Amino acid sequence: MSTRVAYLGPKGTYAEKAAKALAALEKLESPEFSPCKGLRSVVDNLANNLCEAAVVPIENSVEGGVTTTLDSLWRHKNIFIHRALVLPIKHSLMSSGSISTISEVLSHPQAIAQCSQWLNDNIPNAVHLPTNSTAEAIRMVKGSSFRAAIGSKDASDELRILAYPINDIEGNCTRFVLLSKNNIKVDGNKASMAFSLKSNSPGALLKALNCIANLGLNMSRIESRPSKRELGEYVFFIDLDLNNNKQKDFEKITKELSPLCNQIINFGCYFGSEVE
Known about the structure:
By secondary structure, the protein is α/β, with parallel strands linked by helices. The chain folds into three domains: 3-88 and 172-180, D-Maltodextrin-Binding Protein, domain 2; 92-163, D-Maltodextrin-Binding Protein, domain 2, CATH 3.40.190; 190-273, Alpha-Beta Plaits (2-Layer Sandwich). It contains nine helices and 15 strands. The chain is globular.
């Protein structure tokens, strides 16, 4: 029986590369990769049982959290993280023309942001146009002498590589996660969760974070997102290190946080792999 895996398409994106690597790490049975248009669509496909797994970017070392992914995870309460993988990101500038003729640069907004200084230094007059993915940008600039795309050089196809690498930070990398609706894992070296507080009062967040500190768990990441209900109300996403058999301590967090929170979502324990 095959396992359908949704990812941000079309073919040739960094997400496709991450999806194939994560499927191999998780040893998914006969994976079939299904490209989707837009990150929200990837998660919605999983939530609506149109696939058995989904791969999405959740954090970039330059631009921070991928907000669409975080908001989608908060919206769907029955989706869990099963594995994470950090993928190095090296962008190239591709076109059918030359760099002197480029007046428009197309790519996913995250890719454009990760190359903003290079673009400003080398083609400052070019207009930046967002697309749903880097692969879509590559497809849209084929045959054009005034348009260029930012994306993986492995997906350049018929285009010329005008410059590589062009990302502003040499160590640019993105963490992708494999999502599933299956039960939460009970092992792993990482754990993730999100919560909203009952009150927006002095010290409310500190009390919640102290619950985590008192259990001896290291918080490797915290990020806030608007709740979208009212101004000043936030949802907090946290990642925890679970070295030294801390899984049992992680299970206590919900009990400790419950008196302080309106809502808590446990994304589960999972293994995070180093850069491939």
